[in-house]
Amino acid sequence: MGSDQTAHRSLSMILTRSPRFLQRTFAAQRGRFSSTGFQHFRVLVVAIVINARKTKLCHLAAAAPDLGHRTSHARFLLSDWDASGLLAGQAWRIIEAMNPQPGEPVYLIIDDTRIAKRGKKMDGVSKIWDQKSHNFIHGHVVVLAAIQFRGVTIPWAIELWIPKAQAGRSYRKLNHIAASLIATFPEKFGLKVRVLFDAAYLAQSVVRVCENRGFTWFSVAARNRNLIRGGRKQKLKDIAPGVLRYRGKRVRMRRSRGWRWLRVAAVDGVLGRTGEVRVVFSKRSRQSNKELLSVATNELKRKPREIIATYERRWSIEVLFKEMRTSLGLCDYQVLRRTAIERHLHLCCIAHQTLTHQAITEEGAQAREKDKEVVLPSLNQRIEVFRHRVNQDRITALLSRIRDPNVKRKVRRYLIHEAAVAV
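Request: output the structure for the sequence above.
Response:
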């Protein structure tokens, strides 16, 4: 690659102003910032998207040199603004744009992820167990709550877990963080709330909050959990084989790669430290009993097939984690203080929301149809469209300063060509 082409590629990532097509999206947040803070917020969100996979503070600052050195962005991350309120408010504005109708289901999905960090002076770092690598790592635990509505997954809240040695009396377990998120989740537009989480969050504190709020919940239950039926206590791993063999039914379920046949069966009982539940066992014909899935819920009258289909929506938060890790730099922060770390996490979530909002706007009336799943382009496709629109906005702004039509035509042709090379 020649030096001229390298220069053009780097120049294409420089922001001199907020794109015009985002003015309406950002207008609702203006009152939450000072004038300087609002400029930093807009530029950082756009820079996270257009500088895909390069979202360390030095990269973001390089994309907006007019706002000063990277230390000015660091000061913004530590300044006083309501990041959690901003994230939650934007999530509900996206849902409102989809014209929600009373009685439609909305899914609150809660999960956590581990982020490895080499820095030992960062707030909140500790030695933690990573289930994916099956090893201990040094890093952070982040709890994310996402809303899924008509198949669209939207980040709603994100929180950094602080270990007991650093938190002191304000220490909270992951279950308590999840319970507080459920307790503060607003009921809007008359939607029916269903809460989805994995076995790690199937605890009394979480279930009790769901039932106090009138929410139904769905979770995987560990194989060693006790279920009481007819006064007899048994572990789920001992109940499942016989129930599937003698009471199971063969059903056809949709999967990402087509349809698959499953054998499912349901039993009702009292789950230890949880209460009255319906447990649905499911497995493929070739799977062993150790690989079967046990899904518990407090919706006792729901059909087994529907319970499995509902819980499988939880997978969307895993996809959300992967998208924000690989394409929006969720793990690329290099700041020390807890406030700055959480602000970076919130900005990555807001960048994801911005891409989703733009995609839903382009869908138009199709995204506003009741009870109809909305299929959006992949995140990488949304990023490419966003980068193209930013380039077009910059070209239009530059050409507006040129009066000579011949010069304007030549400059337009040149800039469009160089923008295509940079992408």
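The first helix runs from residue 3 to 11.
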